[in-house]
Amino acid sequence: MTLPQIISKQAAGAAIDEVRRKSGLSWDAVSELIGRPPVWTAAAVLGMHALPPAEAERLGDALGLDAALVDALTRQPNRAAEADLSTDPTIYRFHELVQVYGPALKALIHDRFGDGIMSAINCSISLDRVAHPDGDRVVITIDGKFLPYAWVESGV
Amino acid sequence: MTLPQIISKQAAGAAIDEVRRKSGLSWDAVSELIGRPPVWTAAAVLGMHALPPAEAERLGDALGLDAALVDALTRQPNRAAEADLSTDPTIYRFHELVQVYGPALKALIHDRFGDGIMSAINCSISLDRVAHPDGDRVVITIDGKFLPYAWVESGV
Amino acid sequence: MTLPQIISKQAAGAAIDEVRRKSGLSWDAVSELIGRPPVWTAAAVLGMHALPPAEAERLGDALGLDAALVDALTRQPNRAAEADLSTDPTIYRFHELVQVYGPALKALIHDRFGDGIMSAINCSISLDRVAHPDGDRVVITIDGKFLPYAWVESGV
Amino acid sequence: MTLPQIISKQAAGAAIDEVRRKSGLSWDAVSELIGRPPVWTAAAVLGMHALPPAEAERLGDALGLDAALVDALTRQPNRAAEADLSTDPTIYRFHELVQVYGPALKALIHDRFGDGIMSAINCSISLDRVAHPDGDRVVITIDGKFLPYAWVESGV
Amino acid sequence: MTLPQIISKQAAGAAIDEVRRKSGLSWDAVSELIGRPPVWTAAAVLGMHALPPAEAERLGDALGLDAALVDALTRQPNRAAEADLSTDPTIYRFHELVQVYGPALKALIHDRFGDGIMSAINCSISLDRVAHPDGDRVVITIDGKFLPYAWVESGV
Amino acid sequence: MTLPQIISKQAAGAAIDEVRRKSGLSWDAVSELIGRPPVWTAAAVLGMHALPPAEAERLGDALGLDAALVDALTRQPNRAAEADLSTDPTIYRFHELVQVYGPALKALIHDRFGDGIMSAINCSISLDRVAHPDGDRVVITIDGKFLPYAWVESGV
Amino acid sequence: MTLPQIISKQAAGAAIDEVRRKSGLSWDAVSELIGRPPVWTAAAVLGMHALPPAEAERLGDALGLDAALVDALTRQPNRAAEADLSTDPTIYRFHELVQVYGPALKALIHDRFGDGIMSAINCSISLDRVAHPDGDRVVITIDGKFLPYAWVESGV
Amino acid sequence: MTLPQIISKQAAGAAIDEVRRKSGLSWDAVSELIGRPPVWTAAAVLGMHALPPAEAERLGDALGLDAALVDALTRQPNRAAEADLSTDPTIYRFHELVQVYGPALKALIHDRFGDGIMSAINCSISLDRVAHPDGDRVVITIDGKFLPYAWVESGV
Amino acid sequence: MTLPQIISKQAAGAAIDEVRRKSGLSWDAVSELIGRPPVWTAAAVLGMHALPPAEAERLGDALGLDAALVDALTRQPNRAAEADLSTDPTIYRFHELVQVYGPALKALIHDRFGDGIMSAINCSISLDRVAHPDGDRVVITIDGKFLPYAWVESGV
Amino acid sequence: MTLPQIISKQAAGAAIDEVRRKSGLSWDAVSELIGRPPVWTAAAVLGMHALPPAEAERLGDALGLDAALVDALTRQPNRAAEADLSTDPTIYRFHELVQVYGPALKALIHDRFGDGIMSAINCSISLDRVAHPDGDRVVITIDGKFLPYAWVESGV
């Protein structure tokens, strides 16, 4: 059989990350290279967004990536959860924050905006390092459109 | 049996929330009343933090709460997950963001800070409404201390 | 203790449904009574949406409901999943359709609209009975706004 | 060992999808090519239905598919759930709709048809793009035969 | 609050079963009393089907049931799974048979009928005791309509 | 390493099924070929029973199977559940029937036989196609020995 | 409502166990009192078997039990798993033994008896205290009938 | 890469079991060959204990095993659960016995020994075939040291 | 019904903890009061160990506890897991440490002691506060007997 | 494709452990070799921490490791849980201790330190063998920084 070579976006992401690490390129440098914000860039390379072909090729050139890896970067992702990743301590802390503060955030959204949600689709995220006398801080800003529950009919 | 009256912090939170709603007091007003940030305030009232007695009583006076409810506000919480809450659409979106962007956030933390986590304990969260021509936005800022993996021995 | 009377929205919904059944009022009649589409009406009464006070009272009058039930209808819902309900045969068939056709729907959405989702918040659903020689059919129309993945920053 | 070459229907579907993408053929074009509705077509190619040999070969010719892939298209599927797919954001929204509106749909079916279900087997689904001033909409129509609970004995 | 008295169908079933046992009435006698097949009868009384009011009253009279129990018998059931019941040894054996022989039954259905399912809605079940020299046997006959996968559109 | 060639019974079953399908042999024909009932035959070939060597070879000759596949047919099976298979729609309907009617079957067994179970080990299953004016029916007969709870001691 | 008083077998078991403890009666004494082996006796009282009325009354007299508790002892049990009990350290060790040695026991059963199981229905269990210089030992003997896989048809 | 050849203990166990079966050696014969009790022997070969090198080689010689398999027999095992194995009918019956009789065994241990457990580490298991007029029986003896809860401090 | 009053050990523990908090008695004071180590004391009061009657009464006197609570302290515990507690952030960190360091601890135990476990039954735990210039530290010492895997037969 | 060679940290850890075992090097010797505490060393080699390149090479030289293995030692780990490992008896005992004593440890931490957690990130663990007349003991010391819940804002 001569099936087309398909490497999963996630496996491709792990391979590219390894090349990136050895090349000494930081994620911020990759972000600049393709002209995208850092969180989006890392998410895309690790398999959660599709890069436009031009950006994928620019990254491929910079890192000397195989064509199959460049191609994987451009594919539409399946963004399904990988259950075990949620227990990595760095990632788990985010889920714990939602566990502890999720109902409070929901209460404030309903109080200030009305019944609805913060979109996870029309949304941007940034991560900053902020100096602090008691130890530097990770400041994550999640910026999503408010979507009110709306019973709209398209009038088909 | 004359067991001491114990109402769970969560049941107390639901009851107080209902009194609050009928009294017309917004969460922001409650926040001002006790002099605490809004997300912390809502989390505490809903059962995830303990209020100092003075603040609990100030809130109890304002809302005309029963002593058992005021007392519940001051108890040390068990902050365990209530599994089903995580599927409420407003709360689920936050977990989905961690699913989609968690590995990217982890990559950036390791790149900019080194191996470690953002603390979920030494951490504050704010939620703002920001006007935007395409629809107002929910802006959540998570601000946690970076904790590097450190193999410290106390020298007992 | 004289805690405020709180009946959960779901328990209230079950109680109202039972009164409704005995009163002989169909869901369509309830829908007309409060001037809302049938699927929204049933969802709201069963606990998944909040009725405005005026509509809740109109329904309370028609069915002779207790004030606590009318009040429950107006509360902000927690829309979390009740796991076991998903195995009721009538409801399970919908989940099975998503299992079998979900990847195909995702493929078509991405093909015709681009990378994104159909909103479950800005969305209406109708259910019709359509006569057919081989047996009448249930026709469900789900009509949701397309939301493209968009990395918008509010410029705080 | 010279075991017969067996590629799973799902792996075959992923491979064909990739060839399709690179060939520039939309799912609608594939649908026309084999003369089947779009949702059925995408579901079948991705592994949830069996294509008749003639249709499988027509598709194979158009895309230049290997014989093993053409053969996989004709096999009887196992339609079991792949658990993680249900958390992809595009697919998850459908499950969330069933979570929020499932009991309402069940109530209306029982009210308008009697005790029974909408068949997930005798069922068709279409997906349309409908223009709307506030943003185009995804309109999904699920059209399934009503099956009343019936205690039929075949009189063996 | 004077909420309408609602006893769940399942709790009602357990209570009626206990009255039945003490009255000395076998399930076969109950089946004859209401003129329904035994498996359907036991399923309905235990909460999985609704009895028509006349049958519910006939049963109520025979067992001296409270009006609330008679009423519960007539309500539309939620037929969701109770997870733990599936581990009762008598019930578990049925699930184990599906585990061991399910793929074989699926293969034979597809071979003899084509692609489709045996309906669990248009279906009857009987249970017989058959004498056998090595020990009497439980013979269960499941008799369900074959439903072929059919992509029918109602032509709305 | 020259480890002995071991193909799992299940992988072997899938491979043999594919050869069978292409050879045009129905499961009934395989059943006749080895002189075993159809459900047992399909279950055994798909990996849930061991075939005696003579029967395995007769089948291997008829289908032109590799020795490794013939050998796999004769191995003692591990009959453990494959979780996802239980969600295939054709198989799921059987589990749903146990969910809906399991407690009723248990009640009737206890009523007619006493406290005990229907054996899933001393048990046969047949599947028939029965013509019916409203559509042919799948009739499955499960025929298992009744086993009363018995506290027997072997007197070691 | 005047529903018949129903206390679950398990709640009844916990209540009787508490009376037993305070009365100073050991489980062995209860076993002798009703003339049944100790493991069966404890299992029955705790809710896993039904006591014949005469034995239930003898126990009720000895412990001064309420009629509702005596009655509960005579009801047919639902023997479903209580998930959390399996993590009690004393009970967990038994599950761990099955985890570690289950495949070995299966291998030996198949080797010495042929393909089949040890019955969990036609089975007795005893527990003995055996003195040993390194610490007394718990010796549990499980004595179950071998049941060979047998495809028996009752010839209905 | 020339990584050291590592075959998992479990895969090694399955391969050795297959060689053993074809060689006609029973588990009892293997047990005698290495001078270990049968249950321990089967558990060790299937991957749950480490064989001392001398015993592993004696077995390797008798069965003509590859060096990699002999080596795997001597490695320290990970004894973690394989979830699906617990649903094999022969193994499941043991878990079911713990489900039904676990609380009774716990009650008797506490009654006869005090608060504690039967060790699953200092423990031996034997399996015997005992003739019985109603069918031979599997008699399993579990013989574990009683461990009382003891709050011992080593006085570091 | 006049069932004996039974309050679960856990509910009793929560009630006693609340009395303790209001009385101003620290856990260390309770520990001294009954003459037991602090971790054991807190575990016992919260429901995981049984207090001897004399200690339970001393505690009951000091706190003015109801007889039912004193009695609950003396009952044999069921030590089963409460699943949700494991997600409380303070408790979760301990599980995370086992996740991250468990395999390393297992490797060192096997290296230094041989194949076996650290007993969770013959085990003591202490918790100390140790001053440290960068912030005080929690030092937990777990001190358990090593138990080698030993195939001991009691020679019944 | 010439993808960069990537071996997972865990697979690398298993391979190195096997080389280590055959080389006769104890974990303590490895610990000395790289100048790190034993628990940290074993955790790092088994995949839970990254070794600095110099240490990785020193270990690679001592054991004659392939470059790919040495490289794997230096990669940033994903520390996610491997679910099944938690049921290995040696590791499970640690989880059981948290189950039984976790709430007590939480109570003491809150009593002696205030509301907060013991850090699992700023934390060291040691394991010692301590002689004891009744059998040597495993003494594990967990030494983590106390982190009080603190609502710190970085003042961005």
From TrEMBL, chains A, B, C, D, E, F, G, H, I, J:
PANTHER family: CYANATE HYDRATASE. This is Cyanate hydratase. SMART domains: Cyanate_lyase (SM01116). The keyword Lyase applies. Pfam families: Cyanate_lyase (PF02560), CYNS_N (PF21291). HAMAP family: Cyanate_hydrat. One of its GO terms (molecular function) is cyanate hydratase activity. It catalyses: cyanate + hydrogencarbonate + 3 H(+) = NH4(+) + 2 CO2. The keyword Secreted does not apply. Catalyzes the reaction of cyanate with bicarbonate to produce ammonia and carbon dioxide. Residues 80-151 form the Cyanate lyase C-terminal domain. Its EC number is 4.2.1.104. InterPro entries: Cyanase, Cyanate_lyase_C, Cyanate_lyase_C_sf, CYNS_N, Lambda_DNA-bd_dom_sf. Keywords: Lyase. The active site is at R93, E96, S119. Belongs to the cyanase family. The gene is cynS.
